[in-house]
Specification:
Length: about 200
């Protein structure tokens, strides 16, 4: 007597445990392609190929997903700065970090704007990437500001490290925003960085 068997799940089905990551990656891609404004959990679910309610198993709402995407963005920014800094020293390292920061912003404008917007990670997690003083008070290099601060510490006096790092971050972030807003279309950004990030040169 023939017996029936349960249908096999489609190859694209996400097993328990990796749906959260799939949704996060889909949201990340959606923001980079279309910006934050059009992102919705429904759109992310559709992109992943799951039901409209599936994302709510992992993210309470859109803000929770945006917070997770923002955290990933900060981790990637840290990696970019660290890679740019590797093998260099002094002003050359600072200029390379500055270039990497601006390149990150221009390559991922939607993500970059999100990271510095009102959508912030769960405040119960320590330290929150953009939790004001908690972020810049971190003296290790496990976040993007820490990578910059560590390099600055090699070229200025100890009592000037924090203020100098904050000033340089503000300078480069401002340049990145001006580039994104198309206010510096024909300006040689590398020349600007070379002229302003000369700390540590003789």
């Amino acid at each position: 007597m023939p017996t029936s068997s349960s249908p096999k799940p489609p190859a694209s089905a996400y097993h328990h445990g990796d749906l959260r990551e799939a949704l996060l990656s889909a949201g990340y891609d959606e923001i980079n392609e279309h910006g934050v404004e059009t992102l919705s959990l429904r759109a992310v679910a559709r992109r992943v190929g799951v039901s409209a309610m599936a994302p709510y198993r992992h993210y309470a709402d859109k803000t929770a997903l945006l917070a997770a995407i923002s955290e990933r963005g900060f981790a990637e920014l840290r990696a970019c700065l660290s890679e740019a800094d590797h093998g260099l020293a002094g002003a050359a390292a600072l200029q390379a970090q500055g270039r990497a920061y601006i390149d990150f912003a221009t390559a991922r404008p939607g993500l970059f704007r999100l990271m510095f917007s009102a959508y912030q990670p769960d405040p119960s997690r320590e330290p929150a990437p953009m939790d004001d003083d908690a972020w810049i008070a971190n003296t290790t290099d496990d976040n993007a500001f820490g990578v910059l601060r560590a390099r600055v510490a090699t070229v200025v006096a100890p009592d000037q490290v924090q203020a100098t790092a904050i000033g340089l971050w503000g300078l480069v972030h401002g340049l990145a925003m001006l580039v994104l807003d198309r206010c510096l279309i024909s300006v040689d950004i590398d020349a600007v960085l070379a002229a302003t990030l000369r700390i540590g040169e003789a």
